[in-house]
Each structure stands twice: as structure tokens, then as C-alpha cells.
């Protein structure tokens, strides 16, 4: 049995459209794409991080990192996860006729549809105007004697959800602050929120809809944890008594969760392979002359 959400998703060009390809947008896209959601990231707006001269506080880069290299890395990561990166500016969002998704129009004239949208741009949010007629999405303020409007930073909940079904906000507003690393964390939180919303729409009851994405060593997988029957029993223990899943659909979800959990464990050989692959991928973003210089210095030693 296929859920109505999965049947309806086929009517859209994408499962998720992310507006903004900075740290917040790409972080969100990495999580939605890794879950298997068709994700496209539009990026050609006024990204706040591009106004920085140099980043010296982004964790993992002891000597700092220039913006061009960081942008290359985060876009490479999003692409590797499965995101499509499109260099275009989103000009407007509209609800579909049945209010089950969105129509996205870009500056270049492209029109695509998506079941869900993640807004990850810090500036104005004008492209979202008109999506919500009942709740104030924009607030009025006075500037230089004139009355103006801007996107209400408190419109979205802390997890990124909004009063508009399917619209999520990952922009680094309010408590998130304006540091690049905080923006990436915000995007991660919202990406997980979207995945969990999809899981609930596909029939996962709330206690099982929660999602995590990390890999563990296979040596930590003892016989009990690795037994499908035991994992199935754990799944059943978390089921609420009042769930309304049909037997066939319940069995399908149970098997999927067992496969997902078993797939998070890596053998020693696989860890070594991925470690080498990851370091080689980083080299693609390092200047070739610097690599040659480092090689000569190592030979001299």
C-alpha cells in the first residue's frame, strides 16, 4: 500500500525546493537529499556570507577559509548528497490550486513545482509575499521617515515550520544569529524537520517519525542489535496503541526502518575507503600549486 503523500508527490517536479544556497540552504538540502527526497537548490541572490571578507570562525578550518572555497565546498557537498544546484533567482512562490504544493517562478523564467519549500535567504523574503493572507508574514517599520515592510523574523517556529503547510524557513533569523556556522546549524534543524514531516505524511506515527543521520562502526553492532527480529520488536514497542496503520503498510514501514538502521553501520574497510575518498575530495578544493609545494616539502623532509 502506497501512502497518498507518495502518490501525490509524483505530480510535482521536485519534493523540495530550497531558496538560497548559502550554509543554511545547503545544510538543509544535504539532509533532505540524503533521505532520498528530490531536492533542488536555487542560488543567485544576495547571500549575506558573500559580503564577508574572510571567515575565521567556521569550525574545522583552523586558519580560516575564504568565501569562494567555502562556497565551493558546501555546493560540492550538497551536490554529492543528491541536490541539484541551479544558478537562478527565485522571484515568486504561489500555492498550487489544491494548496498541496507550490509553484516556483525564477528570474530566468523557469517555472517548477514542489511539494515543500525551504526559504533560506536572509534578505527581505519578498518572493514569499501573498502565501499567507491570515497571518502577518511581513511587519511594518519606519526608516528615514518612510514606512516600509520586511519579513517578520518571528514568523516561523524554532523548528522552521510555518502556518503555511509545506513552507519552512531556514533563514538565520532571531535566536539563530548571523554567524555562518549558526546558519548551517539552523539549516540542519530545518532539513530534519522536513524529513520528519515527510515521514509522518508517509504514515510513520510520531514516536517513529523522528529522524537522525549518522554512521556508526559495525563492531558496535552486536548480535542482538543486528538481528532483524529484535529490531522489529523494538519498532513495535515504539508504536502507539492507537495507530491506524493497515497490516501490510505497517509491515512495509517496519522493514524499511530495519534496513535503515542496519545501513548506518560501516565495516572497518568501508570506513577506510570513505576516509580516503573524503580526503581526496577535499584536495579538489585546494590550489594545485599549494599541493605541489607541500609535496616538495615532504620530499625534502
UniProtKB/TrEMBL annotation:
<dbReference type="InterPro" id="IPR023753">
    <property type="entry name" value="FAD/NAD-binding_dom"/>
</dbReference>
<dbReference type="GO" id="GO:0016491">
    <property type="term" value="F:oxidoreductase activity"/>
</dbReference>
<protein>
    <submittedName>
        <fullName>FAD-dependent oxidoreductase</fullName>
    </submittedName>
</protein>
<dbReference type="InterPro" id="IPR050097">
    <property type="entry name" value="Ferredoxin-NADP_redctase_2"/>
</dbReference>
<feature type="domain" description="FAD/NAD(P)-binding">
    <location>
        <begin position="14"/>
        <end position="119"/>
    </location>
</feature>
<dbReference type="Pfam" id="PF07992">
    <property type="entry name" value="Pyr_redox_2"/>
</dbReference>
<keyword id="KW-0560">Oxidoreductase</keyword>
<keyword id="KW-0285">Flavoprotein</keyword>
<dbReference type="InterPro" id="IPR036188">
    <property type="entry name" value="FAD/NAD-bd_sf"/>
</dbReference>
